[in-house]
Amino acid sequence: MQDFAQAFGLAFDLVLAADPDLLEIIGLSLRVSLSALVISCLIGLPFGAVVGMTRFRGRGGAIIFMNALMGLPPVVVGLCVYLMLSRVGPLGWMALLYTPMAMIIAQTILITPIIAALSRQVIEDLHTEYAEQFRSMCVPVPMAMGALLWDARYSLLTVALAGFGRAVAEVGAVIIVGGNIDHLTRVMTTAIALETSKGDLALALALGVVLLTISLAVNAAVMGLKATAARYAYA
Amino acid sequence: MLDTSTVLGEAAEAVAFREAKDSILPVEARGLIFEAGGKRLIDGIDLRLTTGSVTMIMGPNGAGKSVLIRLLHGLLQPTSGKIIWGGKAFDQTVRKRQAMVFQTPVLLRRSVAANIAFALRLNGAASPERCSQVLELAGLTRQADQPARLLSGGECQRLAIARALATEPDVLFLDEPTVSLDPASVLAIEEIIARARDRGVKIIFITHDTGQARRLGDEIVFLHRGKVVERSRGGSFFDAPASSEARDYLAGRIVL
Questions:
Q1: Which residue of B has its CA nearest to A131?
Q2: Is A233 within 8 Å of chain B by CB?
Q3: Using the beta-carbon criterion (under 8 Å), do B122 and A139 form an inter-chain contact?
Q4: pTM across the whole model
Q5: Could you tell me which of B60, B78, B53, B54 has the C-alpha nearest to residue B68?
Q6: ipTM above 0.95, yes or no
Q7: What is the pLDDT of residues B214-235, one digit of tens each?
Q8: What tens digit of pLDDT does each residue of A153-207 get?
Q9: What pairing do the DSSP bridges indicate for beta strands B227-233 and B219-224?
Q10: What DSSP string describes B92-121?
Q11: Is the peptide bond before B183 cis (omega within 30 degrees of 0)?
Q12: Mutate which of B108, B123, B146, B170 to test chain A, going by most A C-beta atoms within 10 A?
């Protein structure tokens, strides 16, 4: 119990003092996870939209596969990316291992299936509503896809949020490919893991409190935006 | 305020334009049959519809009215039989010159103006001027920036009809567009449809409302159990229906 009280006190002090090390860690966490999110959305949203609005042979299997990939274990993803990027790996020449870019790649692989699978469901529901009207209007497929993605944008924000939550909170993949190098690849989750193993539970908990606060703030902002959209019947 | 002289001038231009270009009409259904779930919903319909009038499709529930217009519009494929548009088989060019308004309007989750702009973009005719012109014809100028889904039932349907007419179709299909709307909304919608008819748009309109069929219908096609049991001019259908089914229907008796 004392640890918790001490942790909150320390977290408060660290944030108030704008501790440069802490800000660097938070900044890198956000940079890595948001970059992974943007790339995942660029890949996952069109993919989800195509699967959601088309019928093809093997679609059921594709959906099961996409859903299964949502549960990819981060350490396995980290290991695979590590093998690809290691000096002897096929992409070793890029010298990306133990860099933020490697962490972005690992998190992108981790959350793209989440974005694709969840957006597929959202787009499919909206497509069911629009399909006959679009056929009647002869809307070409690319335009229909754009319209569905745009009209579902507030629901897709929740999808992006789920992806961001997964990325910012995972430790298994980034610690393997990033290496938790101070001032280079140390993010909040890897720092928490390190401080816990060092026995500095108060600092670990303080970082945890900061991480939780960021997650809560992002969630609240997105939900607020979604509620506003629902009030205006756009959601 | 709507500038009547401008609108009438545009209407005359539109009719001239429509007469000048090749119309996709007449549409002919030959031996049309449609089956679904082991049931025959359309049972051998032969029908020829020509340009420049309002054809009301009437009949009891389950008669096959909605299926028939979906077949004509190309949303459903017939089990057998043919649909010929202007002597040619149905294709995308024919579909692009038709529009359909559904019983429950499907509006995009956008503003009223953006719904119109979407339809105009499909025809490569999206300009702010054209958009406001369409909104004005539907009496929705004041609601232009409102989210389409917050409109009243009547306004939603007016928007759906305006969007359908925005692309200047040759044929407009309407599937009970005024069901459960208040009289003022029904009147507003009938006025929009009458103006479209005056511009030369062929109207194919499903309704259960005999008053509406009298007001708008130049001819009535009466369906029963997937067959055309009667086809006659508006007045004669209501004054002296030829078929016993139509007589029962108009007398308010349940037609099975």
A1: B106
A2: yes
A3: yes
A4: 0.83
A5: B78
A6: no
A7: 999 999 999 999 999 999 888 7
A8: 989 999 999 999 999 999 999 999 999 999 999 999 999 999 999 988 878 888 8
A9: antiparallel
A10: HHHHHTEEEE-SS----SSBHHHHHHHHHH
A11: no
A12: B108
